[in-house]
Amino acid sequence: MKHLNYQRQSLWQKPTDVLCQSPISLTQATSTAIKGQFVTIEFDCVTTRKDQIVGEQFISQGLLNLFGNHWHLERFHFHEHSEHRIENHYHDIEIHFVFKHDEAILVVAVLGDVTIDSPSKITRLFENNYARFELSPLFPDKSNYYSYQGSLTTPPFEQTVQWVVMADSIQISASDLATIKASYPSNYRNEQPRQKRKIYYHITP
Ligand SMILES: [Zn+2]
């Protein structure tokens, strides 16, 4: 399938009504700290993998409780390197878990870095072993996170997206990174202006 050409992203369809775009740079110093608002996610098992214009998608189910709503997991995918910059640092990968509540969209982003030698469970996903795949190891142990309002990072950019960006990264190996890169080569959107947006840093126990 034909995929988005990230070398030509300046030519992508321009957003019309959602001026606050993603990704952006996130730092604790420029965020408002909030205590609590814990993210809880219950996952079912991954069922299918689907190639789309925006890249390969893992279609899955799960439930997230946040901001007083239940959000249903629809799919997840990878970016290499990260799209968000955390404390002025790009990470090796970023995983996007796309949730919906009616028509509203919330994306949980998890950053990952090459820090271990042996392949993590991520490699199993790409070997088509996603039946009964546990998604929880794809999340960091600590659950501090940033939240802000932005957009999808692939066209169309119209709809407002609630972002939850986990502050701590997960550990992957060089071979995991090579596997991810084969399916998602340099698929990161350039950083977008913050505008006057409020960014929150949630400190959870
Ligand atoms: Zn994404």
UniProtKB/TrEMBL annotation:
Residues 1-203 form the Alpha-carbonic anhydrase domain. Keywords: Lyase, Metal-binding, Zinc. SMART domains: Carb_anhydrase (SM01057). PROSITE patterns: ALPHA_CA_1, ALPHA_CA_2. It is an enzyme of class 4 (lyase). It comes from the Bacteria. Pfam families: Carb_anhydrase. CDD domains: alpha_CA_prokaryotic_like. It catalyses: hydrogencarbonate + H(+) = CO2 + H2O. InterPro entries: Alpha_CA_prokaryot-like (IPR041891), CA_dom (IPR001148), CA_dom_sf (IPR036398), Carbonic_anhydrase_a-class (IPR023561), Carbonic_anhydrase_a-class_CS (IPR018338). Its cofactor is Zn(2+). Its EC number is 4.2.1.1. Reversible hydration of carbon dioxide. Belongs to the alpha-carbonic anhydrase family. This is Carbonic anhydrase.
